[in-house]
Amino acid sequence: MDRSATTRQDGHRAAAPGRVLRELGAQVLWANWTGASTVPSRELYPHQWSWDSAFIAIGLRHLSPLRAQMELETLLRAQWGDGRVPHIVFNDAVPLDAYFPSPDFWRSTTAGRAAGAPAGVQTSGIVQPPAHALAAWLVHRADPGLSRARSFLARLRPRLAAWHRYLLCARDAGGAGLAAVVHPWEQGMDNSPCWDGPLSRVEPADPAAYRRADLDHGAPEDRPTDLDYGRYVRLAEVYRDRRYADAEGPGAFAVEDPAFNALLIVSECALALIERELAADDAESGDSTESAALAESAAERRERADALTKTLVDRLWDPRRGLFLCRDLCAPGRDGELVPERGVTGLIPLVLPGLDRDITATLVRTACGPHFGLEGPARLVPSYDLTGPAFDPRRYWRGPAWFNTNWLLEKGLRLHGDHPRADGLRDALLEAAVTSGFAEYVDPYTARGSGARGFGWTAALALDLLLDDSRSGRGGLLGEEVWS
Question: In a designed cystine with 57, which of 3, 135, 419, 469 is the match (CB 3.0 to 4.6 A)?
Fold first, then answer.
């Protein structure tokens, strides 16, 4: 057989797994589609989740840019008047006992009225990481013609701007400019050992006062303990009973988290690109006044992103441990104190374009070292320190590897030019997605799946890794233009 025939056969064998992954991933997203948005899981998570929808839209853009746009539009229609984007938008067709905390716990239309909760839809009252402007920009780039025809960016920009303004102003509990989370559910990595210290001050709710629906679909050894869950419920109750007011200052829990703020910074960069795009469109149509205002806002956002990156380093970087740490604002002391636990949240700032080169190199060394095991014993980067006393390869966010955090790390490695490691992590993620049945999370050593199967962002982000055509460039998450 000649060399060209061998090459054709090898290429066909290499392409086949990609076709299978595309078909299977698409099946997950179509099965989880409700007609206006995508549930993370039909059984365990039967509503719309905020940062899930951002990640799902990023993957959906490769299959249906229209559905990806609808995903974000549906979420942002539930935005509150004060700018917050709630972490859950409830589906009225789902029985109340299918998920807890349910709408009758959050009472958004009554307890959230003063904060501007919408009257026509039930939501939670807390938030999740702000990846939405990033998702909106990537969705727009997937089909700019469709986006312009539907005025997608023009309609979303004011909502995204209000969302960022809420986080940068109402949530600046530490007074330094970073956004604080007031509940572990807001950070997204709900059960991380990074919260054990801050949560220890919280008196748990009476377990007889609620029923955990999550245990109907997940093994107890995979889920948060009853003690931790009781503390989550207590924090949510107190915030609800304060009518979701932020002006009174933090309650028993307020944390500056590196991943949450890194995503806010990246989304500020994305919103700057959105405004720059809209400014160009307005200039072309002859609206010079609006074009100038948008261009000025875009420039201010880029400056703010640079300033926030510096603040993130000043307040959360720990050079001795070689990663970013959470800051517990409620601990004794004027600025609280850094939480010493090593979580994957401390590696996520690798996605930041303005991060110092020495810090990015240190983050990569930490990711590859004994605590996270990249390119070593771990097939995927765990959610928590492999050597930590609280490490558990199965329990929710206390050790398992998650696809969204590894996706972000893959993008960060690629952004900073470490293509070989990015390629290796990408290949491991694609293999784990298929072999685990698109699991919610996996054992970092074996990639054995746990939690829900057919999980929305696992399928979406695997599709993005498979189908994104920008891997050879330097542009990272936002495209090369953001760094020019």
Answer: 135
Catalytic residue, from 328, 440, 443, 464: name it.
440
For the chain, how are helix, strand and coil distributed in percent, rounded to 5?
Answer: 55, 5, 40
Which SS3 state, helix, strand or coil, does residue 477 take?
A: coil
Instruction: For residues 126 and 484, give the distance between their C-alpha atoms in angstroms, rounded to a whole number.
Output: 36
Q: Is the pTM of this model over 0.85?
A: yes
- Residue among 190, 214, 237, 337 flagged as catalytic: 190
Alpha carbon distances (Å) from 361 to 39, 284, 338, 355, 356: 37, 42, 22, 10, 9
Long-range contacts of 475-478 (CB under 8 A, 24+ apart): 475/415, 476/351, 476/353, 476/411, 476/412, 476/414, 476/415, 477/134, 477/138, 477/266, 477/270, 477/351, 477/411, 477/415, 478/134, 478/137, 478/138, 478/266, 478/269, 478/270, 478/273, 478/353
Mean pLDDT per 10-residue run, the chain (484 residues)?
31 57 97 98 94 98 98 98 98 92 97 97 98 97 97 98 98 97 96 95 89 73 84 96 87 95 97 96 90 96 97 98 97 92 98 96 98 96 97 94 98 95 96 96 96 96 90 51 39
Dihedral of CA atoms 47, 49, 50, 53 in degrees, nearest 10, equals -90
State the Cα–Cα distance between residues 143 and 150, nearest whole angstrom: 11
Q: The tokens 């959050």 sit on which residue?
A: 106
Query: In the prediction, which pLDDT does 368 show?
Result: 98
What's the CA gap between 358 and 356, in Å, rounded?
6
Which residues partner with 450 through β-bridges?
441
Q: Decide if 190 is catalytic.
A: yes
Q: What would the two tokens of residue 96 be?
A: 């109340």
241 carries an active-site annotation: no
Q: What is the DSSP string of 342-377?
A: -BGGGTGGGG-TT--HHHHHHHHHHHHSTTT-BTTT
Distance CA 64, CA 86 (A): 25
**Cβ-contact 315, 174 below 8 angstroms:** yes
- Tokens encoding 206: 């009476």
Dist CA 139 CA 350 (whole Å): 22
